[in-house]
Amino acid sequence: MTVPNGWVVKRSDLARRVRLTGTAIAVAALATLVVIGPPGPADSARAATNSYDQITGIGTTDSSITVPWTQGLLNSSNQPITSDTTDLASNADRAAGTGPLSFMYPDFQNLVVTVSQTEDITHQGITVSWTGGEPTIQFGGVQGDFLQLMECYGDADTGPDPEDCEYGTPGLLGANPQNPLIGQRFGDLCVAGAVPSTTSPPAALNGQGPPFGCDTEEPGSATPSHIAPGGQPGTFYVPFVPVNDPTDPAYSSTALTQYFNEFNTNEVQTAVTDTAGDGQAHFEALTGTEAPGLGCGEPESNGQARNCWLVIVPRGQYEPNGYQLRGVVGANAYLDTSPLSASNWAQRIQIHLDFATVPQYCPIGTNETETVGTQIAARAVQSWQLALNTQADCSKIYGYSAVPEATSTQELADPSSGIGMAFTTIPIGSEAARDGTATTTLPPIVYAPVAVSALAFGFNINEQGGFVSTPVKLTPEVLARALTQVYLADLPDYYPSTGLKGPAWAQGNPLNISTDPQFEELNPEVPPFTASTEPLAPLLTEDHSALDQSVWQWIQADKGASAWLNGTDKTGPVAVDPDYEALQLGTAPAIDSFPRAYSSCLDLGEFIGPPPKEEVKCSLDLLPYANSYESAATSVLTAVNPSAGIWDAFATAPDGSAGWWDSDGPEQLGDVFMWTLGDTADLAAFGLIDAQLCNDDGSDCVGPSTASVTTALASATADSAGLLEVNPASPGTGGYPLVEVTYAAVPTDQSATALDAYAALIDYAAGPGQTPGVAPGDLPPGYLPLPANLANEAKSVAAELDADAAAQSATPSGTPTAAASQLAGAGSSTPSPGQSTPATAVGSSSPEYGIQQPAAEAAAITTPRQPVGAVRWALLAIALVGAACATGGTVLRSARVPRWLHRLRP
Q1: Which residues contact residue 684 at a Cβ distance below 8 angstroms, ignoring those fewer than 6 apart?
Q2: Is the pLDDT reported for residue 363 higher than 90?
Q3: Which among 32, 165, 79 is positioned nearest to 351, based on CA atoms?
Q4: CA atoms within 13 A on the CB side of 338
Q5: How far is residue 837's CA from residue 370's CA, in Å, rounded to a whole number?
Q6: Who's near 683: CB < 8 A, 6+ residues apart?
């Protein structure tokens, strides 16, 4: 087809990927969390009961929707529209098989779609599943019978317009797509007066033949808004009209990039249906924070949150002009039109999404009660913040910053920090002994249990047959291999296109984890990914923590994995990396980080030029660290691979010259394999598939669930400070090994005002904050409600702090409070659960969560672009502490420590 100047058609002119540059902006935190669920009841009503698993978020929710295509046009109450007779394919026409486009109906008539959640939506994952579809036609690429998904705004009860939808990003269909126009916003107009015909499809006005699928329902000049200024005759363009600037519609791919691009869009251009007619896709819902052009969740003039729509456009075997796909290869075998084209748009299913209100900022200068702590508690704390801050109507607010363990120690040890509570899974200061760093004396501290959750591995695997929805199984040795760069694709100097095959020790190793013989035996449903040399390593954070240590403790509990790590057993099919073998990772005590220890780099100087450029790619370039559990989970959900890929002679290097490493960017549907280590709350929020942890022989596999976390918690024992810890080596029969209990740690030598404030937070967390749900103040999915004994323990600590505050007001200055006196007199005896003797703390050089920049990025003084919304713990110094006043916001506090310069340790 003929396209206007400046429009991108990948068939003839492949655009280079936009490089991952720019910085993420720290924003208000998520207000609520998501419950991700599989198909609900087979009707068009909401699910009658809430049956999700609290830890995984899997199960049907009260707001789950199941709708057949024949009733797929829903109103803002998610009820079928019966009064609209003007739609080209109304519900009545669909049910009766009538209307001008009825030739398209057979592919959709049995299609039934389920959306896992439609209320209290935030930035999260939503599971979309379907049955009754026609199996996707694909031969060297997706040809026909697939679904396209997008998010749209629109206040009308009858649904959104195609102009309201985030869709049309070039480059998402792969390097050599046969049908790139299914990912665009434009197409061909038919000759005047044409009608669709399956026997004699009309040609396009611009001369293109019938296979290109002109749309007879696009009215051309009769609808000037679909004619691009300066566009070529015979073509139409459906502009994107941003909700925040409706007077400036975007009429080109270049104009769209100011609102979304291939690295932050949530559109799904090809979701395939398997041979049984079923399919599933994980859809990333975006709020106005991540997608200002949609504005979902932003307060409207009536004070209510702007609601949005999930639009699903099924595609069959017919083009809008009546042309049917023919054959298995060639130009005639692929659909070639946009889902926004009038006839295709008429086949849509539209489902209304009720968004939670995006948190708004309190005025700068509002009295703030600051807290810090482990990122594993972030989602629970954010939910509690929202409720408490709303109750206070900004008269005072609770702030929260996710920081490493050493920083929590620093802040509580320093009375001038203004921070009097830290959320922690270990006794404050105990990380100093673990890491052998400097110590200092801490004030007396009491501990209140507030949350129970777990670490887990989350997967997003999508191949030509669709998503892998069953849990992935991991053994200690397979996980040890994945964490230690033994697969060829995880080595920067494995570059087969130049003849570089990697080091001699790795020559017999698998290409990646999917081709590891043990992984294949454990996971026969996961296809081997052999067509690409991209790494399939998990996304990991660079922090040092007891959370990381627990993963290695689980691995070390297996004798075979320990022997392999230490190099004492070399009989298996996978050789150990000598650089990691030198670390003796199989020997206790377990380390508390995930090093990138492979020392060799790739030097392409002799392969590129002229003139030659001595540029190297090392492990941190190939496998960069993620900023946080949340950002990693977002990247996995959206399949945005941060790994450094091939050499791009046209990319701009940091010194301004031509030639640099291209980031892999979004993986293509049908070729997605990404996974990460994270907390169960983030994995549940973004709908990732959990892993089951198995014995080394593949038996007794256990994944995180309400039952397995409860079992493991029952096996927990108290440490010297009274904090409960689950031993990863012995979590009890059926117990999940990586369970964590988070405590609120509060020094008792604070002002009465501070003690009262922290007592109120603990009391709320242990009371209303333990009610599972997705509303502000609830306990989000991913957390197990506290057992009664732990809830009572927390409330007892809150009451004690209240009593101390009252006593402090009634006693002369300097008189110890009751709790302080009790702890001071405890001597060396073990304190009761929830209390601690004075501890030691690390020195003042430990930073907040950060990453060691890859050499390429450090040289350029840039950071990789993250998907919009993956902003917590971004690589960015926040200038104003007042930004922490975001209601429910997790923001990074400016401080005395260079928290983003965390040094990588082995």
Answers
A1: 33, 34, 35, 36, 55, 56, 57, 58, 780, 781, 782
A2: no
A3: 79
A4: 28
A5: 23
A6: 56, 57, 456, 458, 633, 690, 782
Average pLDDT score over the chain? 81
- The per-residue DSSP string of 231-261 comes to PPTTEEE--B--TT-TTS-B-SHHHHTTT--
What is the C-alpha to C-alpha distance for residues 497 and 533, in angstroms, rounded to an integer? 10
| Token pair recorded at residue 434 | 């673990």
The span from the CA of 777 to the CA of 128, in Å, is 27
Range of lowest pLDDT (60-64, 74-78, 410-414): 60-64
Instruction: Say if CB 28 and CB 361 are below 8 A apart.
Output: yes
Q: 468: Cβ–Cβ under 8 A, 6 or more apart, which residues?
A: 459, 461, 462, 525, 526, 689
| Cα angle 455, 460, 462; round to 5 | 160
For 535, list phi and psi in degrees, rounded to 5.
-70, 150
For residues 118 and 839, what is the distance between their CA atoms, to the nearest angstrom?
47
Confidence of residue 890 (pLDDT cuts 50, 70, 90): very low
Predicted local confidence at residue 38, as pLDDT: 30
Residues 6+ apart with CB under 8 A from 708: 55, 702, 734, 735, 736
- Pick from 623, 613, 564, 557: nearest CA to 590: 557
Measured distance CA(50)–CA(44) in Å, rounded = 16
| Phi-psi sector, 333: left (phi>0), alpha (psi -120 to 50), beta | alpha
Q: What percent of the chain is predicted at pLDDT more than 70?
A: 79
Beta bridge partners of 666: 640
pLDDT over 60 (residue 324): yes
Per domain, the residue ranges of the chain are 65-353, 456-704
pLDDT band at 664 (very low <50, low <70, confident <90, very high): low
Question: Is pLDDT above 60 for 865?
Answer: no
739: its two tokens: 């369970």
13 Cβ neighbours under 8 A, 6+ residues apart:
none
Q: For 687-718, give one letter per residue: b (16+ CB within 10 A) or e.
A: bbbbbbbbebeeeeebbbbeebbbbbbebbee
* Opening angle at CA 727, ends 629 and 521, nearest 5: 70
Query: Per-residue pLDDT averaged across 285-307, rounded?
Result: 93
- DSSP-derived secondary structure for 323-390: -B--SSSSGGGS--S-TTSHHHHTT-EEEEE-BPPPP-BPPTT-EEEEEEE-GGGHHHHHHHHHHHHH
CA nearest to 447, candidates 416, 418, 425, 414:
425
Beta strands 640-652 and 658-666, pairing class: antiparallel
Average pLDDT over residues 686-694: 93
Amino acid in the structure at residue 358: V
Of residues 426 and 125, more confidently modeled: 426
Q: Give residue 220's identity as a one-letter amino acid code.
A: G
Q: Is 511 left (phi over 0), alpha (psi -120 to 50) or beta?
A: alpha
Measured from the Cβ of residue 219, the count of other Cβ atoms closer than 10 Å reads: 14
Residue 42 token pair: 């087979």
Phi and psi torsions of 166, nearest 5°: -80, 100
Q: What single-letter amino acid sits at 762?
A: I
HSE-up (13 A, CA, CB side) for residue 857: 27
More confident call, 878 vs 140: 140
DSSP 109-160: TT-EEEES--SSB-SEEEEEEEESPPPPEESSSEEESEEEEEEEE--STT--
User: What single DSSP character describes residue 592?
Assistant: S
pLDDT tens track for 96-137: 999 999 999 999 999 999 999 999 898 888 889 999 999 998
Q: What are phi and psi of 864, to 5 degrees?
A: -65, 140
In the block, tokens 């969740």 appear at 297
- Report the distance separating Cα 640 and Cα 645, nearest Å: 12
Query: What's the confidence (pLDDT) of residue 621?
Result: 86
Backbone angles phi, psi at 621, to 5 degrees: -75, -45
Please list the residues that pair with 886 across neighbouring strands. Answer: 361
